[in-house]
UniProtKB/TrEMBL annotation:
Protein's recorded name: Enhancer of rudimentary
InterPro entries referenced in this protein's UniProt entry, alphabetically: EHR_sf, ERH
SUPFAM superfamilies found in the cross-reference section: ERH-like
Protein family membership: Belongs to the E(R) family.
Leader sequence residues: none
Gene3D superfamilies reported in the protein's UniProt record: Enhancer of rudimentary (3.30.2260.10)
Pfam name, any one: ER
Highest taxon of the lineage: Eukaryota
Amino acid sequence: MNAQHTIVMVQFTSDINTRTYIDYDSIQLALDGICQTYEQALKHSNPQSSSATYTARDLFAYLDALCSICALVRKAEKPVYMPRDKQWIKNKLIEHLKSQTK
């Protein structure tokens, strides 16, 4: 994946005060960050567990439960950010997770 600056915007619940954004130096780092956010949510819901094990289906269910998640990805050749929706994020996560199992 190209090293393209990526901004992930999330609203965790219907409360607008849960809106936040995180910027990353690349798409790959953004995908890692999304997985880490889910892992933190798992740890928070199961504090007695020392490790978090999950499937892509579990991760996608978490993303679907969010009020909103999207990304802005900077095009490498132009100083323009392209909006990316939840489905794009899921597709990239599938590629990302597959690349980690190789």
